[in-house]
Specification:
Order of helices and strands: HHHHHHHHHH
Number of helices: 10
Distance between the termini: 25 Å
Shape: globular
């Protein structure tokens, strides 16, 4: 695990770690790997025409999101978070309104959850609320409002037994307590 720095420097941090590990594996185990080669690899969702065309991308994507049933603000918010991957979320919105209603989840939150489950290997509520969305750190009210609904959906999606569901509920509650403690101090 590495931490610190700014999001804009995450690739450089990752490159340093990979190159350190390559060196370590060679020295300690005699295994050879090449250096990190991701510097020019596009990031997931990064096919937006570069920073110069990002606003144009948001405007165009927003129109498609609105045709899927979202408000302009909702569509713009998702497009700015997910970049060119947002079209998958728009498909989720179009095709899953009934499921979102069944679990009493706002359609945008449901779309983010389903996308995370399908494409980002999210397997626990903590994965979703902390590691994927950052909501524990930046929108704890949303987490508190919808945590039970998200857990119910994930229980249904993964077919968790009651014991597993309770375990993941406790894990999320512990993370929420820690986040609350940090924000108060």
């Amino acid at each position: 695990t590495i931490a610190g720095g700014k999001l804009t420097g995450y690739r450089k941090m990752a490159e340093k770690i990979v190159d350190l590990l390559v060196d370590k594996f060679e020295k300690e185990y005699g295994k050879q790997f090449g250096p990190c080669v991701t510097k020019h690899t596009p990031i997931s969702g990064g096919d937006v025409g570069g920073s110069a065309k990002f606003n144009e991308f948001i405007n165009e994507a927003s129109k498609i999101g609105q045709s899927s049933g979202l408000s302009k603000e909702e569509a713009e918010s998702l497009a700015s978070k997910y970049g060119s991957n947002v079209y998958r979320l728009f498909d989720i919105v179009k095709n899953n309104a009934d499921t979102a209603k069944e679990f009493e989840l706002p359609i945008t939150l449901f779309a983010e959850l389903q996308y995370a489950l399908t494409y980002e290997m999210v397997v626990t509520p903590v994965d979703f609320f902390l590691r994927r969305t950052g909501a524990v750190l930046f929108n704890i009210h949303l987490v508190n409002q919808y945590k039970e609904n998200v857990i119910q959906y994930m229980q249904s999606y993964f077919n968790w037994d009651p014991e597993m569901t309770e375990r993941y509920q406790r894990e999320l509650e512990e993370i929420l307590k820690q986040a609350q403690f940090v924000s108060e101090h």
